[in-house]
Structure formats: C-alpha cells, structure tokens
Fold this protein.
Amino acid sequence: MGATIRGKIVDQKSKKPVKEAVITLTITGMTRLVDIAQVTDDFGAFLWKDLEPGEYDILIMAGGYTNRKISILLNTNEEQEVFIELF
Amino acid sequence: MKKNGIYEDQITDETTIIEEAFEGSGDTIESEEFDDTLGEETEESANDYLEVSSENSGSDQDFEDLETPFEGNESGTTEGSQTEEGTLEKVSGYDYSVLEEQESEEENEEHLLDAYYAEFGDPTAAMLMRSESGKKMMQEVVIGKDDRKQIKGTTQYPWRAICSLRIKAKDGTNWIGTGFLIGPRTVITAGHVVYMHKHGGWAKSIEVIPGRNGAKKPYGSCKTSHFHSVKGWTKSKKRSHDYGAIILPKNCKYGNKVGYFGYGNYGFFDLLGLKVNLSGYPGDKPAGTQWWHARKIKAVTSRTLVYNIDTAGGQSGSPVWRIKNGKRYAVGIHTNGYSLGNSATRITKPVFKNLKNWKNKYK
C-alpha cells in the first residue's frame, strides 16, 4: 500500500495557492526512489502515494519564490499532510 | 556471486545488437548481433516482457529489421561532437578528468556494490546493509559535488531528441519526466511515467516537448494518450521492467524533424566501465531546463545499469547513451535514484525487441 504525502503550497503573504510548483523527493538510506517529480495543481495541491517508509527531504521550487526544503519522517502506510508557505 | 572482482552470474560477453539513431543523412546500418544473456528466460519472466498498451491494440510483432539513428531534418551544426574517449558528448566546462578519478572511488565502493547486487538475490548481504553498521557505512559515502551541466543549445542534435514530459495522471495529479525519441513518433521513457500504479494506472495524457529550454518550446509540443509498456511493469511492478513508450499522434512526427537515438543491446563486458551520457529535465533545476552529466557504469546486472551520474526527480525516462562511430546509442533508460548508485533499465534483448516493435509500428 505504501505511505502518502498530501500537501498544499501557498504564498506566505497572500495565502493564495502556488500552482506549478515543482516537488522533488529524496530519501536517505537504503531505499530506491523513482526519479519523477510532481507539479502542484491550480489549488497548490499535490498528492504522492505509494512511498516507502523513511526520512524524506521535500524540495519545492516555484518561479518567483525562494526554494524551500523540508524533511519529514514517513512510517509504513502512514499518510501525512504538509502545508508549506513560500516567500 | 563475485569472483576475482567479477560477478559470475552476469558473465556472458558477447555480441551486441544495435538500433541506430537517425541523423538525417547518416543511415549507416551496423551489423546485427545479439547478446544472449537472457536467452534462457522462464515462461513467467518471458511473459513479463509481453507488451501492453493503453489502447488495447493488438501486437504486431516484427523484430527482423534494423533501425537507424537519425539526426533529423533540422539544419544546424552538431554541438555534441565526440570527445577523445569516443563515447561521450563534448560539453564545455565539464571536467572529464573526474571520470578517471572515479576508478579509485570505486575501489572504496566495492562493498556498496555488494549490497546492490545483494538486492538481486543475496538476503544475507542485504540484511547486513540494513543493520546499524551497514547504515553507518552508507553514511560515510561521499557522493561528491553536483557537476551537472546545463545544455543551452537544445535545438541541436542529440539534445533536441530529448523531450521534457508533462504528465497528467488519471487521478488528476501532475508530474514531470523525460523521454527520448527513437523513431518518428516513438518516445521511450520509464514505465512509471506512462503507468502509475497508485495514481490511476495509465496516464490520462502526456505532453511531449522536444528540446525544451526553460519557457522556450522550439518545436512546440504534442499531447497524447497512447502508451505502451510491458506486463512485468503494469501487472507485476518489477523494477527490472520499468520502461515504456509514448506514441505521438500521426500529425506529430517529431523524429523526422529533430532526429532520434539509436539503441543497442550490449553485453556485460561492453557495459561495465563504459563512459555514458545522461541528459534530462530534473525538477531541482530551473523549470524546463535540460541538464547533462557523464560517468562510468559501475555495475551491471542482468536487467539494470548502475552509475554515479547525478540525477533528480524529473529525469525518469532519460536516455543513458554512448557514442559509437559517431552515432548515439541508448544503452539504458534512467529510472531510479538510490544511495548505492542511480540506475537505469538495461536495454536487454527483450527490451530491445519491444523498442524496435514500438518504433516500427508507428512511423
């Protein structure tokens, strides 16, 4: 089944969703990760399923914003929600 | 099993079979040779290579013809001329001496390769690498600096035959990946780009953008919902079968204009230590820019290639290629990032045959 990250990315000041932000994941340790990246939709949302448990770095890049990197720990079959502000 | 530095179960060197890239006037056909490493497929594993399509069309298999690399009908000089070593593109600003330094690094990494191979059948070694001491060993690995180079001349061959992909999954999520042309309408990529098991299966649509350079789309783009992969990926989700094809519409024969890559099935000894190129569209760089890197192949399994070429999310489906006699041949399809080395699906004989079929069927 795998773990899931459900996220939303907004502008820090306006709180409006940031669409077309590119999300890349990296994982530490002995886990292989497919080299694909996700792009947020019109609501600034993204959904990443089927992840192995582990410690992930999430890099968010969007035009006009400073790059942001956050780390999260995913347990087996866990679903985590992340809310990220860009400035 | 390793013996005298050689992994015995991988040994069979041998001959190669080659599909050539197309460069417009370059239509030399190489002799056809086969690596029979995988000649003893079991019925079950052979079924994994059966092609499946998003359109449920029948398979019209014809593996007899050779293919030809083609640089396309676009005018312009070829920036990517060969280096002295012969197999790599010449990209300004890249320090090719690191490829030689890599050899000493690899001696230190030998134990890590053991762990990689362990994944393919040795549970004891795999357990070791998951232990505390194994993890500590992993943390001590120095990957080195990121020396990827941006390709700015993306309207030149072979860079223009590499495509930025915008993927719309069935569940509405949006993704980015990379693909490369091997024929007029056939774009090869990773299986997980065209078929995402947990995001609805076959992608809803993919926009293909050859030679993209940031916001610039020098050849426009085409959207399609016609894909192929193999049962080993769509049904069994085997990493070793992670590859597929995007079929462009009949009115979008990009390959005739921008050219396409050849591809080849090479033996173990041809591949191990071979200096290879990888170029694609990573998500950790400015949007839509193409980045290249090169390294030696440091491990070869029966169905995968492992290398320290730097990659990031978005580069799935990138070609891993060599230059031979001035022509570009893909030897693998990049799929995974991994602390033990990034990896590609190897173009084995069955993979080669499916690529050839997908190329010949859609011209």
Summary: Chain B touches chain A at residues 115, 129-130, 134-135, 138, 166, 171-177, 190, 192-193, 197-199, 239, 242, 282-284, 286-287, 311-316, 334-340, 342-343 (CB under 8 Å). Residues 13 and 270 of chain B are 7 Å apart (CA to CA).
